[in-house]
Specification:
The complex is a heterodimer. Chain A is an all-alpha fold. Chain A contains eleven helices and no strands. In chain A, α6 packs antiparallel against α7. The longest helix of chain A is centred in the C-terminal third of the chain and has 23 residues. Chain A starts with a helix and ends in a 9-residue tail after the last helix. Chain B has three domains: 66 residues, no CATH class; 76 residues, no CATH class; 124 residues. Chain B is 74% helix and 1% strand. In chain B, β1 and β2 form a beta hairpin. Chain B is globular. The chains are: A mainly alpha, B mainly alpha. The interface between A and B is large, with 120 and 145 residues.
Chain lengths: 226, 316
């Protein structure tokens, strides 16, 4: 039970709004010490865990490309293009992206989207462009609200799509953890039972995107900072 | 066989270039912090496999202290004005999209084809790492195309990368750090302790209580750990396997699938997840803005997950 001290450190650190990387590291060290591990073992475990998960950060390789293209007007061009399609609303565009993101992730194509490679350079400026065409210039609150929703659809689409693909990390992890608990399941069944939640998630978020359009259309609505 | 090193070396070179340019940037008051932070990240990618676990651990702690206490300055290298961008956009037109679209196109082709290419029976690309390696190849090909399309000065490539990486800042290492926290938790037996605690608190004989505790526990523990993959083994060992499957005879595949998705609802609501921190940094949104956009959906989907699991898990 002593090892739970580290969990408490993480929770308290977050509530007190300390920097998350300090909180996580402190949580790991306290957990290790409370669990009876010595300092060298804890530091080595941190180092090994960090080193073994470098694959997560390979996605940053797209930033030089995105930066270079932004410098040459990528976001401006994305806004101009979408402005020609005056029938498209911000919510409608995000709903289409949500559907595409969920479907492609369900086919195992996680790399087709992403915050750095799609949302910042294309989806967010296009959603802003769509709103601007219909509603005129946007204030900062509306712009931030649209950007936050552009980031949200990428996450929601990916999370509630990827579990349908049998060969992706999540399904394989579910299978492996169940096997550790002496339960054997077929990956295909795990993937199939992710479908009901995926449909609910799409329906729920689609309704919220319709509401987003309504909120943006209300001229008096001063969107709060989020 | 082409493995992850093929992706790590270019990443290391990019971070090393960012570190050198940071050190030379006199306009950034914290330039030495930036240089050291990105330099250590570069070292991790280039030499992480050579220096051993303990040295990697020291490297991690040094990065945490620089990023968390010293702070990284957000540099403002010379870039183009809004007018210049508009002019360039109307000149280059749709060519601007070609490099962006080349990244997913390469990832798509790579995922479909690399996995099958074999030379004398040995796969050319490590089949387990195809997605990451294709992404790295796609990014490099796209960089080549972008340089050709944009024709910017050479140093602009590094400066633009630096501008964006400095915006991400310390959050860049959070996902890997959370993975490391999960490793320490596993080593110290945290999962076991949490499972025991929750198992003891549950009322006897209530299936719905077990299902609700499992789904809510997945969401909550995911919020703490920033990652549903870390929460899943804990809650399965504590509630899913012994109670839902063992005592009440529920279906393990349904328990696992919907339980993981309940965890994802937690990811959408936690300030610990890089999924929420990195887009906020990239879009220059206040902290919490992305979470506020996601939270209503996350709560409704979480409720749907509890209802779905209760409805389905004891029926199939």
């Amino acid at each position: 039970m002593m090892s739970l001290l580290g969990v408490a450190v993480v929770v308290l650190g977050l509530v007190a709004r300390f920097n998350p990387i300090l909180v996580v590291t402190a949580g790991a060290i306290v957990t290790g010490l409370a669990g009876g591990l010595d300092a060298v073992t804890i530091i080595s475990a941190l180092g090994k865990g960090f080193n073994d998960s470098r694959f997560i950060s390979v996605a940053f390789l797209v930033l030089p490309v995105i930066g270079l293209l932004e410098r040459a007007g990528l976001q401006a061009r994305a806004r101009t293009l979408i402005a020609r399609l005056s029938a498209v609303t911000a919510g409608g565009l995000l709903m289409a992206y949500l559907a595409v993101r969920q479907l492609t992730c369900a086919l195992g194509l996680l790399a087709l989207g992403g915050q750095a490679s799609m949302v910042r350079p294309l989806i967010a400026p296009m959603a802003q462009g769509a709103a601007q065409t219909r509603l005129g210039p946007l204030d900062d609150g509306a712009r931030r609200l649209i950007d936050a929703h552009a980031a949200a659809v990428d996450n929601i689409g990916a999370f509630f799509g990827e579990d349908i693909f049998i060969a992706l990390g999540s399904v394989l992890l579910i299978q492996a953890v169940l096997a550790q608990n002496h339960i054997i399941v077929a990956p295909l069944r795990v993937a199939l039972w992710a479908i009901p939640t995926a449909l609910f998630a799409f329906a729920i978020h689609a309704v919220r995107l319709v509401l987003l359009d309504r909120r943006l259309a209300q001229p008096a609505a001063k969107a709060p900072a989020g | 066989m082409i493995g992850l090193r093929a992706a790590y070396i270019p990443a290391g070179i990019v971070f090393a270039a960012i570190a050198v340019f940071s050190a030379l940037d006199r306009s950034n008051r914290k330039r030495w912090n930036n240089a050291l932070f990105w330099g250590l990240f570069a070292l991790s990618f280039l030499a992480g496999d050579l220096i051993g676990d303990f040295a990697n651990g020291v490297l991690v702690i040094a990065m945490v202290l620089i990023g968390g206490l010293g702070g990284i300055g957000i540099s403002a290298p010379a870039t183009t004005t809004a007018d210049e961008r508009a002019a360039s956009a109307s000149r280059l037109r749709e060519w601007l999209f070609a490099p962006v679209l080349l990244i997913p196109a390469t990832a798509l082709v790579g995922t479909l084809i690399f996995a099958r290419l074999k030379l004398a029976g040995v796969p050319i690309v490590d089949p387990k790492q195809v997605t990451v390696i294709s992404l790295a190849f796609g990014a490099m090909a796209a960089l080549g195309l972008a340089v050709a399309v944009v024709k910017a000065p050479t140093r602009a490539t590094v400066d633009e990368a630096r501008r964006l990486m400095d915006q991400v800042g310390w959050a860049a290492i959070l996902p890997q750090l959370l993975a490391a926290l999960g490793a320490v938790f596993a080593l110290a037996g945290v999962g076991h302790a949490v499972g025991e605690l929750i198992g003891r608190a549950l009322p006897e004989g209530s299936r719905l209580a077990a299902v609700a505790a499992f789904c809510l526990g997945m969401a909550l523990f995911t919020m703490i750990m920033g990652n549903a993959f870390a929460a899943f083994p804990v809650l399965v060992a504590g509630i899913g396997a012994p109670l839902i499957v063992g005592r009440y005879g529920g279906d393990a595949a349904i328990m696992g699938a919907i339980g993981m998705l309940a965890g994802y609802c937690g990811t959408l609501m936690t300030p610990m997840a890089s999924h929420n921190i990195i887009p906020a940094a990239l879009l220059r949104l206040p902290p919490g803005a992305v979470i506020r956009a996601q939270a209503p959906t996350a709560l409704l989907v979480l409720a749907a997950n509890i209802a779905l699991m209760d409805l389905l898990v004891f029926r199939f």
